[in-house]
Design goal:
- With 1006 residues, the chain is mainly beta.
- It has a single domain, classed as Beta Barrel (Maltoporin, Chain A).
- The protein contains nine helices and 54 strands.
- A hairpin with a 7-residue loop joins strand 41 and strand 42.
Length: 1006
Amino acid sequence: MKNSLLKGLTLFLMILCTSLTYSQEVSGVVSDSNGPLPGATVLVKGTTNGAQTDMDGKFRVKNVGSNAVLIFSYIGLKTQELNVAGKSIVNVILKEDSAELKEVLVIGFGKQSKRKVTDNIASISADQIGEIPVPSLQSALTAKAAGVQITQINGKVEGGVKVRIRGVSSISSSQEPLYVIDGLPLINDNESVSAAPINPLISLNPNDIESIQILKDASSAAIYGARGTNGVVLITTKQGKSGKTKISLNTSTGWSQATHKMSWLNAAQYAELYTEASAYRYGADDLWLTEPGGVFDGYANGKDWRTGQVDTDWQDLALIKGSVQDHNFSVSGGDSKTVFFLSGGYNNTEGIVRGNNMDRYSYRGNLDHKVSDKLRVGLNTSLSKTRITRIGSDNSFATPLQAVAQTPLAPAYLDDGVTPNNETTLYYNFLMQQFNGNWDANIFRTLMNSYVELKILPELSFRSELGYDNNNQTEEYFAGSLTESASTNGYADANAIQSDKYSINNYFTFSKNFKEDYNLEFVGGMSFEESARKRQFVAGIGFPSDELQTVESASEITEGSSSRTKYNFLSYFGRATFSIMDKYLLKGSLRYDGSSRFGASNRYGVFPAASVGWIISQEDFLKDNEVVSLLKLRGSFGVTGNAGIGNFASLGLFGGSSYNKQSAINPSQLVNQDLKWEKTNQFDAGIDFGFLDNRITGEIDYYIKKTNDLLLNEPLPGTSGWSSLTRNVGSLTNKGFEFVLNTTNIKTANLSWKTSLNLSTLDNKVTSLPGGDIVAGQNIVRVGETISSFYLVEYAGVNPANGDALFYKNTLQADGSLDKTTTKNYSEAQRIITGSPYPTLMTGMTNTLMFKNFDFSFTFQGEWGASIYNEAGKFQSSNARYKDNQTTDQMDRWQKPGDITNVPQARWGRSNGEQASTRYLDKTDFVRLRNLSLGYTLPKTVTQKLSVDRARLYLTGVNLLTFTNYKGYDPESSYDNNGDSNIRKGIAFYSAPPAKTIIIGLNIDL
C-alpha cells in the first residue's frame, strides 16, 4: 500500500515537474556591436513559437522547455543558436555575417533585406550625396544609379530637373517619377508663372536625408500602381537613436563659375565680318555701316570703335562669379521610449547667371515614441522658406544670356558707369531689368507625416499614416518705367498658388516563420489621396514712381484671374513575400487604383506584379565556397500606370467669357469618357553576385518596358474647331541592360579603396501611332523611331566655287534609297531623322579612398548617343545673316573660290545656310568629373582637447572638368521654354551652362 502510494506520488511529481518545465518563460536582450537590435527574431527550434525584439532589443518567449534551443536571427548578422539550459534570462550579441548583404531597403509600405529582394532597386545613402554643393535633391543623385538619368535643364539656381528612370514611357503624360518622403507622396508640380520652370523639390534640404531608394522595375513600383510607370523615388529622412544626445554641425562656403563659355567676336572681328557681308549685298562702295554717323557709330554711342575704344564682352556681363553658403545643424538622441531628430539649415546660392540667386531656410523635426510594448506613435515635420530672385526664360531679351546677341560695338553703360544704356544697343539691354525691376518667388512648404502602429499579435501589426503636404508659392514681378515696359509707365503682376495634398494609408503587416525554413510576410491595406490647388493672378500698368512696385499702386488693372481645382486617388493594395529555406524567394503584389481624372467607366485600374528569386549560393554545392559569397537569380513582371494628365481631361468643359460686353459660356474642351489609364508592362531579369567575402559585388539586369494606351494630346484638324484631344493612342517600348560593380580594392588597417561603377543602355522606340507622324518644330514622333527624334534637312557644307550653302536632297528614289545629291535650294531638300535627344549609353563611376585620417572620393559621369539642336544657331552662327554677334567660327567663312570650309559666305540680309538643318545639330557625348571631395578628420587626441567627438575639414568640387566636343554652352543644358510634356526635346536656345563649384567646409560632431 505504501509502495503504491509512493509510486503514485512520484509519478505525480514527475508530471508536475514536466508541466512546470514546459511553462518556463525566457526573456532577454538581443544586441549587435552598436547596441540593442529592434526587430530581431527569436524562435524556439523545431516549433513555431517565438517573438520579435522591441525597439530596445528586448524579447519575451513563453512556454519554453528547460532544454530548448533558441534561434536568434537578424538581417545581415550571423544566426546564433543557444541552449536555454533552464535559464530564464538570456542576452545575446549577434555578430556581423560577411557573407550577407547587410543593407536593408525601404520598399514601400515596409522594409526588406537587400539579400532577399527580388526587384531592381537602386539604393543611395546619405554618405553618397552628403556635402555635394548643389541646391536641389535630384542633382545630388546624378551618376549614382544605373538606368537613372538626371539633368538640370540649365544653370539657373531654381532650374527644373529632369529625372528619367529607364527611359521615357510617355509622350504627352508626365515623364517624372513619383517622389515619396517618409511614406508621403510629394507634390511635384512646376508652379512657375513663366515658361521657365522652378524645380518643385527645391525647398527640400538634402542634408536631412538618410537614404534614397529608386524603384526601377514594375515589381517594386507596382505597389504604387497608378503612378509607378516612371519609377518611384523613396526618400527616408534621418531619425534619432537612443543613447547619448548627438549634436552635429556642417558649415561650408564656396565659389562658382560657368562650366564653359563660348567664343564670340570682338569689336574688330564684328566690324570686319559685317563690312564684308554688307559688301556682298550692296557693294564695297556702300559705307552705310562704317561711314561717320553710320550704323556702327550709332552702336558705339560716341566712342571710337575704330581704335578699340569700345569692345563690350556681353557674355562676361551675363555669366558672373557665383557663391554658395550652406550651414546645417542637427540634434538627435533619445532613450528606451522616445527618440528624436531635430535639424535646421540655411542655404544661400548666388547664381552664375547675373541677377539669379536663392535663399533657403529649413527645419525638420522627427519624433518616435513607444507608448507601450504594443503601441508606437511618430511624427515627422518639415518647414521651409525659399526665396528666389528670378530672371527671364531663355526666350526673352530680358534674360542675361540673350545679351550675347548684342554687338560688341555697343557699350553696356552710359558714361556715368551706372545707368544702363538702352538707346543704342541692338536689342533690349537686360541690365535695364536688373537695375529697374525685380522678380521674386517665395515658396513656403510644410510637410507632415504622422503614424500610429499597433502590434495586435506577435506576427500581426496595424499601421495608420496621415500625411499632409502644403506648398504655397507667390511670385511678384515688376518692370519700371526705364525698362521695356516704358510705354506703359511700368508693369507689375502678382501670382499666388496654394497646393495641398492629404494622404491616408492604413495597412496590416503579417510576418511569421513556419517550421524554421518558411517565412511569410503579407502587407495589405488602402490609400487615399486628395490634392487641391488654388491660384490668383493680377496685373497692372501705370505707376507713379518706380519705388512703388506692387500692383496696388497701378493706375490700371489690366488682367486678373483665379481658379481652383481638385483631384483624388483611392487605392487598395496587397503584397505577399514568401521565402523557403532562405533561398527560394517569391513575391506578388496587386494594386487597385481609382482616379477622378479618368472617364466614369474607366476610373479604376488593376496593377499586378510578381517576382521570383533563387539564392544559388545557399545551395549545398556553393554554401561553403570560399570564392562565391552571393549568387542570386531574380526575375519580375508587372504592370504600372500613369495618370499625369489634366484633372478634367475626360470631361467636356465650358468656361465663362465675354461677348459684346455680355456674359457668355463657351465650350473649351471636347469630352472623352473612354479615356483610361496609360499602362506599362515591364519584364526584368537580373543577377546579383558577390565574390571573395563580398569584396566584389554587383548586379546585371535586362529589362523591357512596353507602354500601351498612351495618353496623347493628339492634334485635331483645324476644321474641327479644336486643336487637340487627350486620347489613348499608340504604344512605345524601352529596353536596355544595366550593370553595377562594387569592389573593395584595398582594405588594410590604414588604407582602403572602394570603387563603384554603373553602366546602362537605352533603346527607345515608338511601336504604334495610329494617327501617323506627329511633328513639332525640329522633333518628330514616328513609328520605329526614338520618341522626339530630330527631323531636319541635312546640311552638306559649302560650295567651294561660290560660297553657297548646300543641302542633301534626300528625296526618296525608286529603289528605296535617298538621293544624296546636293542643292543650294533649301526647299528642294527633304527632312530626315538625324538623331535622338536621349543617350543610348550612360555611366557613373565613384572611387572612395581612406588613408589614416584622410578621405578622398570622386565621381565621373558619362553619356553617349544623344544630340542637341541649337535653335539660336540661326542667329548666332549665321554668317552675318542678321546683326547678332556671331560665334568666332564664322571667321572661317568662305571668301574666295577654292576655299574649303563649312561656313558659307557672309551675306547680310540673305539666306545662306542659316535655315533649320543639321548644321546646328551637335552630338552631346561627354565625360564629366561630377564631384570630388578631399577631407581630413582631426585625430582623437586633438578632438578630445576640444571636447568634440569628431571634427572633419573638407574640400569639395562639382562639375570641375568636362570632356566633350559639343560646341554649345554645355551638353546637358537645354531650352527651358519647352514644357515637360511637350514633344519638343533636346533643344538649346541661349541656355545657361551649369555651375562649376568649389567649396570648403567643416563637420563637427559633439
